[in-house]
Amino acid sequence: MAGGNGLFECEQVERARRYHRPLYLAAAGAIALNLGVLALLTFSVLGDHVYAATSGWAWWARVLAFTLLVLTLTALVGSPIAFWAGYVHEHAWSLSTQSAGGWFLDRMKGLAVNLVLGAGALLGIAAAARAWPALWPAIVAAAAAAFVLILSFVAPVILEPLFSRFTSLTDLELAGSLRSLADRAGLPVQRILVADASRRTRKLNAYVSGLGRTRRIVLFDTLLADASGHEAELVVAHELGHRRAHRLAKSPLLGMLGAAAFVIVAWGLLRWPAIRQSIGAASPADPRMVPFLLLLASVLGLLASPLGAALSRRWERQADVFSLELTRDLETFESTHRRLALSNLADLDPPQIV
Description:
The protein has one domain (10-165, 245-343). The protein has 13 helices and 4 strands. It has helices at 10-43, 45-52, 59-92, 100-131, 136-158, 160-163, 172-184, 221-226, 229-244, 247-270, 273-279, 290-327, 330-343, and strands at 166-168, 192-195, 206-209, 216-220. It has a 4-stranded mixed beta sheet with strand order 1-2-4-3. It is globular and about 65 Å long.
């Protein structure tokens, strides 16, 4: 059919297109706005004026305060786009169940997490540069990698509960079948949790997170409400595919390498007197370097995103193959993925650049 792709009707493809195209524009606008604000705070008198608000404070207090000001300012500037994309648009398509107050509270929680992690990281860089002017890149790179690893362990038990409530799967029959499935895969699981996603969305999903004792499989309560037992098994089989391929270990490893690479790039750039002069920072220990480092992190993250997306697609395909080989249920495999694609309004024909 014209506009279709052989798997979905053209009306379904077009509906998903109408939902996603504005979101792509909003995402591009949010990225440009974030980079623009950080660039202004880095290279213009706007940054000088914001930094002057911390004049007379101790160096460590200036790092913390300036980081809080920069992150808060960028969050405020980006809030209109975020509110439209995350609340207005989702409600317009009947996908969100969250109130405006709930959305705002989540936004504040996310900002608080970013403030704590961002301020702590930048304070660590400045402190290391002050204490070890010649060795700080090696020390900070190692510390950044270790921090990413630790965060992979603690995020499921510290950060995830800030945004969702988790309970054990109470359907004993389904829990038994899921554990049996995991045993057949040679990947026994101890924790299968249910997240109260219905407080925010009607979308269906599941995921794996954590390392070691914090490793768990999490099912959205929306998935359990709409999916059959066989469909839930198929989704869990997909998540077991990620475990089989050690994705929960590979992802933190990539994050560790990325954190170390960021430190090395920052060190290389800050060695140039012209760059230090353009941002008004005498050295990497100068609190004035805060917006520059945040800008650099954003730019490097954007440049790495195509590689990350390609790797994610590869991993998802491999997990799909594993789930089909494990369940040997082609009919459920197809029906489940169709249900997920249509219920979540996945883009069924995304632009090539996306």
